[in-house]
Write a structure and sequence with these properties.
The complex is a heterodimer of chains A (294) and B (282). Chain A has 294 residues and is mainly alpha-helical. Helices cover 77% and strands 3% of the residues of chain A. The radius of gyration of chain A is 25 Å and the shape is globular. In chain A, 39% of the residues are buried. The longest helix of chain B is centred in the C-terminal third of the chain and has 47 residues. The chains are: A mainly alpha (294), B mainly alpha (282).
């Protein structure tokens, strides 16, 4: 009995020794930095408490001229935020639309083909995203390869670079694998018998998809959506390169303030983005759990 | 199951979408002229230019130095942390650890980068330093975002491990520490290696967090690429991308090989075990 106590005490010491470096590290470099974001967001340059940074985000205005040449006064940062949200949602939706069938097809292939296809999908993920984005810039240019290919088949060249469409193409390309992989991993584990059972009970192909495969794949769909939406809403660089800097996104705004050394305002934008994302994800998670429960 | 023609066609289409830009990069890195849209002749000119560019070569060295140190340190700390988390009995503490570990993965990179940068700048100011951003701040940042991935690779392996194994080793006279190194570590090794490779590639590839935590003097390859793409780009960068592509391809193949090999050894070991068990029951 005594011996056993000694062992468990030693075990406890080992456990503590194992965990303590990481605990200290996590507090110092994960938790404390987030507190610093809030601290900077609510202080001015002399570290006096202020709401100015936050109110600036919601009230700062600027004048833009739209296509017809008429000048308009807009809320600068709200506009940027809504634009980021819009482009990110569109990109995520396209990723889902393209990725879901692809994940399904892959999950139905033989084991060897599956592993080859998944590796192929992962390779572009490991290419640096700056290079991937830049490659699209050269493809979509007015004199780029895309337009010369259109010319070859006798179509008129289109002007894509510098439009919102180009930014969406870049986002879809950069984050597409993050949609396929989680959906695929859920589908690969799906019990084939459930589908057979549904067929035996008189379900057609569409019925099987709607009543069996789709609900079962929802966890993968939900994590795919988060994995695409979060990076595409917060991205910078993509819009600078593919949108010719015309479509400032929230990430560009943060980076711009950082470069201009307005650390407090950069922190405020980051803080607001973080709060909104956390809120969205909590709501989303709740919806996901509810669906899973049903 | 055989693929239907439509499914095959769609898969090919997806692959074309994924690889077209990369193929174009590869092809134009061998272009004779500076053009990125008209191929005029095959040449290694841009590769020679690349190897003459001391800034880029320095960045490669910096990136490797950073990736090796960050991945090794995060693997050691992360494996220990996984063992500690695995042995936690309190559900409450476990939830806290899981939540904190998830933060760097859920948070957008830009927020992780900004938050670390703000802290470094603030602490640096406390000590009166003009700039506190350097190799060391980058190393801290890289270890921080690699740690969760290592932990999440190792934890499942610990959960799959037969719990009686380390106990048996201790009953046979091993000290807990010895049992840990002789029994537990070999059991979870595949997870540790996968974690190490993941940490290494994540560190190699990271731009956003590096961008915010880098000092002026320390330039990694992604930051170098960023600076290159600020101006008009020559195919020199394409040559660089091509080399990176093949390095990644080789790394992925090695890790796949290791994965299937370790799966193979596990399978064989299990077969042996079940055979022995059958013999014993006879």
């Amino acid at each position: 009995m005594k011996n056993k106590n000694a062992v468990s005490r030693r075990e406890r010491i080992i456990r503590r020794l194992c965990l303590s470096p990481y605990s200290v590290w996590a507090v110092l470099f994960i938790v404390v930095p987030l507190i610093f974001v809030a601290y900077y967001a609510f202080t001015d340059n002399d570290f006096q408490f202020t709401f100015a940074n936050i109110t600036r985000f919601f009230t700062a205005t600027s004048t833009i001229t739209d296509d017809s040449g008429a000048a308009r006064e807009v809320r600068t940062y709200l506009l940027i935020f809504l634009r980021s949200l819009k482009l990110a949602v569109i990109s995520t939706f396209i990723c889902l639309l393209m990725g879901y069938p692809a994940a399904y097809i892959i999950s139905k292939a033989s084991a060897r083909v599956q592993s080859i296809l998944i590796t192929l999908i992962m390779i572009p993920m490991w290419m640096n995203f700056l290079i991937r984005t830049y490659a699209w810039m050269t493809i979509l240019q007015d004199t780029g390869i895309f337009n010369s290919m259109l010319g070859l088949v006798g179509l008129h060249p289109v002007h894509i670079i510098g439009t919102e469409a180009a930014v969406v193409i870049g986002m879809v390309y950069d984050y597409f694998p993050y949609m396929i992989l989680p959906i695929y991993s859920v589908m690969a584990k799906m019990d084939e018998k459930l589908i057979e059972a549904a067929r035996d009970l008189g379900c057609g192909s569409f019925g099987v998809l709607r009543r069996v495969i789709w609900p079962l794949s929802l966890p993968g769909v939900f994590s795919g959506i988060t994995m695409v939406l979060v990076p595409s809403i917060s991205t910078f660089y993509i819009s600078q390169k593919l949108g010719n800097g015309k479509f400032y996104l929230i990430g560009d705004a943060i980076e711009g303030q950082y470069v201009a050394n307005n650390l407090h305002f950069a922190a405020a934008i980051a803080f607001i983005l973080m709060v909104i994302l956390l809120f969205c994800m909590a709501v989303f998670q709740r919806a996901a759990n509810k669906r899973a429960a049903v | 199951m055989k693929m239907k023609p439509l499914a095959k066609f769609y898969t090919v289409l997806v692959m074309v979408f994924l690889f077209a830009p990369i193929v174009i990069l590869l092809v134009f890195s061998f272009n004779e002229a500076k053009s990125l849209s008209v191929f005029s002749g095959f040449s290694f000119y841009w590769y020679r230019e690349l190897f003459r560019d001391s800034d880029t070569l320095g960045a490669v060295r910096n990136t490797l130095l950073l990736a090796v140190s960050a991945s090794l340190l995060s693997t050691v700390m992360g494996t220990a942390a996984a063992v500690g988390i695995f042995k936690l009995r309190s559900k409450y503490l476990r939830t806290i650890m899981d939540t904190v570990t998830n933060i760097p993965m859920i948070n957008p990179d830009i927020i992780t980068g900004i938050s670390l940068m703000l802290m470094f700048v603030f602490v640096g100011r406390l000590f009166g330093a003009a700039t506190s951003l350097s190799f060391w701040t980058m190393l801290i940042a890289h270890i921080t975002f690699c740690l969760p991935y290592v932990i999440l690779q190792v934890l499942p392996k610990l959960q799959q491990m037969d719990k009686s194994l380390p106990e048996a080793a201790q009953d046979l006279g091993c000290t807990p520490l010895r049992a840990f190194f002789k029994v537990e570590i070999p059991e979870i090794l595949p997870g540790i290696v996968t974690g190490l490779i993941m940490a290494f590639t994540l560190s190699l590839d990271d731009f956003v967090i590096s961008y915010f935590t880098a000092g002026n003097g320390f330039q990694t390859l992604p930051i170098r690429i960023y600076n290159m793409t600020k101006k008009t780009v020559t195919p020199k960068m394409y040559a660089l991308a091509t080399i990176i592509f093949f390095v990644i391809l080789i790394l992925l193949m090695i890790s796949n090989l290791f994965d299937s090999e370790s799966a193979e050894t596990v399978r064989k070991a299990k077969e042996k075990k079940s055979k022995k068990m059958k013999e014993n029951t006879k």
